[in-house]
Amino acid sequence: MEMKDSKFSISEIQNLVSKNDLKSLPLTVRAIQYRAEKENWEFEEVPTQGGKNGLKKIYTLPTYVVEELEKKGLLHLIGGAETNALSVPHTGRPKTAVRQRAGITEPPIPSVMQDMVNEYDIWSEGQDVGSIVPVRYHTNLFGRAGHGERFDEQLITEAMWFRASFFDVLGVSPDKCFCSRIKGDSMEPTLIDRGTVLWQMTADYLGEGIYLFRQYDDIRIKRLHRINRHTYRIVSDSSNKDSYPTEILDLSQSQDYDFEIYGKYLWDCGIAS
User: Fold this and answer.
1) Quick one: how far is CA 70 from the chain centroid?
2) One domain, residues 173 and 194
3) Same structural domain for residues 151 and 263?
4) Exposure winner among 8, 48, 173, 203, fewest CB in 10 A?
5) 201 and 72 assigned to the same domain
6) Is 182 a domain residue?
7) Do residue 207 and residue 231 come from a single domain?
8) Number of domains in the chain
9) Quick one: 141 and 232 in the same domain?
């Protein structure tokens, strides 16, 4: 039995497969798209928001899928379908299901954005990944936004990816940058505890700003103001000055290895509690 008037987008077909445990098709949008192209499924293009050139493809289900639906008594799911047979009809304010993932309750998706979610795999496949570059991300290096953190272990280095154009705007080269973690709340609200910072590598003081530096045995993240050649004012952005008072660091009697700058702040990200 073939339902020639019933056509569906790949995301709608994937929804049909996952909700009804169909065995004749793979589970992911990308794999179903590959199957459709390989088997030359019949399709037509219809207008849509956000699709390539404002169009999306809707496909006639292959015979073997229709036969599986018939065996399972599920033909009613596609019986009166046209271009949006598997979509929930709009009757006033739509009810959007709350999705569950790894025990986390996700908020409902606005109805006007549901197609973006459904077609994400197809959209992402078409993006230009040639314009992104990796930066070394030292996942176990925590600069202390507090009172200092010793680091005496081997670095664990992964990659964090950025657009190459981002570094053009910053005026720095990605090979001379790195990322590290933050521990502590002394730099909030500027930097969030457990967040990540992108640093420009530098051994020199490059003007007032936030720096990652070693002070004796401690790795710290603070705002530095150089008063003179040997003296720095170390400032926390926190308003709690009782816990994080401004410090004066006098290096006039110190050895060169007592203080070392590693990087100046460029960008950060974190998850607010």
Assistant:
1) 41
2) yes
3) yes
4) 203
5) no
6) yes
7) yes
8) 2
9) yes
What is the signed CA dihedral for 211, 174, 194, 237, rounded to 10 degrees?
30
Q: DSSP assignment of 206-249, as one string?
A: -SSEEEEEEETTEEEEEEEEEEETTEEEEE---S-TTTS--EEE
Q: Tokens for 178, please give them.
A: 């790195």
- CATH number for 215: 2.10.109.10
Please tell me whether residues 32 and 69 are part of one structural domain. Answer: yes
Tokens for 168, please give them: 């053009």
**Residue with the two structure tokens 């930097």:** 191
Same domain, 102 and 138: no
> What residues contact residue 152 under an 8 Å CB cut-off, 6+ apart?
none
Per-residue pLDDT of the chain (273 residues; tens, 9 = 90+): 444 457 898 888 988 888 888 999 988 887 888 889 889 999 998 887 655 567 888 999 999 999 999 999 988 888 744 333 343 333 333 333 334 445 567 788 898 888 888 888 878 777 777 889 999 999 988 888 755 555 556 889 999 999 999 999 999 999 999 999 999 999 999 999 999 999 999 999 999 999 999 998 899 999 999 999 999 999 999 999 999 999 999 999 888 789 999 999 999 999 876
pTM, whole model, 2 decimals? 0.60
Copy the structure tokens of residue 242.
């009782």
> Pairing state of beta strands 132-144 and 177-183?
parallel
239 and 140 within one domain: yes
H or E element: which one contains 19?
helix 10-20
Structure tokens at 21: 């445990």
Chain-centre distance for alpha carbon 256 = 40
Residue 139's domain spans which residues? 130-269
Give the rounded distance of the alpha carbon of 96 from its chain centre: 24
